[in-house]
Write a structure and sequence with these properties.
GO terms for molecular function: asparagine synthase (glutamine-hydrolyzing) activity. This protein has about 450 residues and is an alpha/beta fold. The protein has 21 helices and 9 strands. A 4-stranded parallel β-sheet has the order 6-5-4-7, with helices on both faces. Strands 2-1-3 form a 3-stranded antiparallel β-sheet. A two-stranded antiparallel ribbon has the order 8-9. The longest helix has 27 residues.
Length: about 450
Amino acid sequence: MRLEHRRLFGLENEFYKVGLESSFSDLSRAVCESGFDDFSPEGVTSFLSFRYPILHHTMFAGFKRSDEYRGLESTLSFGQGRYTNMQQAKVIAEFLLLQAIEKKVANTRRIGIALSGGLDSSLIVAMCRALYPHREIYTYSIGFYGDDEFKYARKVAKKFATKHYEKTLGYKEFFGDDSWLKALIKQKAAPLHPNELPLAYAQAQARKDCCDVVLCGEGADDVFGGYSHNLMLYASYVGEPQKFYAYILEHYRYFSYSTMRSLIHDKYIADDTAMIAPIFRSNAPKDLRDYMLYFIQALHTRGLIERGANALRFYGFNDGFVFLDSSLIDFVNNLPFSYKLHTKAPVQIPIKDYKSFSDTHCESKFLLKKIAKSYLPSSIITREKKGFPVPFALWDKQKAFDIQVDSSVFKSDDLSCCNAWEKFMIYNLNAFVEVFGVYRRQTGGGG
């Protein structure tokens, strides 16, 4: 992967402290050694909107990602491709994906793969077996009591003769005294995505199995067009093209501003629309259909990848994100939009209920599914994407989120305005404040 892509997606990080010339790669260590004045409003707002501190911001006032990392969204180009034939695109994309896998596993003996049983991770397993018929391949699936997708992962593991491991997680892995949550927060220097804990448990077993690398399917949705609702959002927009990013953010935010203001002191709330505006002034795609893909790769993908990278790093693994290979990204980004999201009916703008249209008339990851037909059974390729089923609603009933929050950051312990998923985000943010609060030189107080 080119350095600029590694930087954009958070796999090569340098940070600096405002007022000092030197930079460093370990933000957590720097903050713990020197302390910090307060939490960053841009970081807190980023977490509540995007689930991680975006662009050059961190969770700490006075600490930034290095300036050289700004503007890297310009490395993303759309609409410049010469390839319009689907068969030709399939052959080239398949070759690039196989090549990306080979780059990651070239000098390894034991290959580990995080396997959900969905299209992306299953295709990696199938391609690895095609490339290495006699190599030891280990697969790892994590689920939850009463809700898992093990049957799909088992089907793939059996078909491709992997050594398969499953682990079922429960309440104690997230909230028990021995939970790894705070240790992962400390390493990351930011609150967690809920999937980081399950990923860390998979990496722990991979380390015990002496795997040399662990490959992940993260990034496939972002490159090949897996978020069909989001990708159809353009069809409901009737405003000025240059302001589409603000419309996207209204639909993307994980917390609304009204909810943020009801929970967080005003001093920790920033304008997230103004924060992201610069990256859309000159580099956004001309075709509005590609705009969401640009938004995703410039702002969403890094948060997704950093959760996986944090879990991998927890057990000493390098990144294994084969779908983020630079050659593959450049090629697929410049293919026609219809190769990613295929529509089976005419799109007549504006479409008020774009989500319903997407569910009825659209097929996501169209090109990737074409590639997968040579490797996987149709039951895996076409099954409905479920996402990772962390049972927050059940844990909410068990009073997991009835906590006393830090009053210097939060206005109230009352989380009744939040759903269970949002309550975990608040729990997670509060755990971050607890972990790093001891290094804060001032307590801040209410806004």
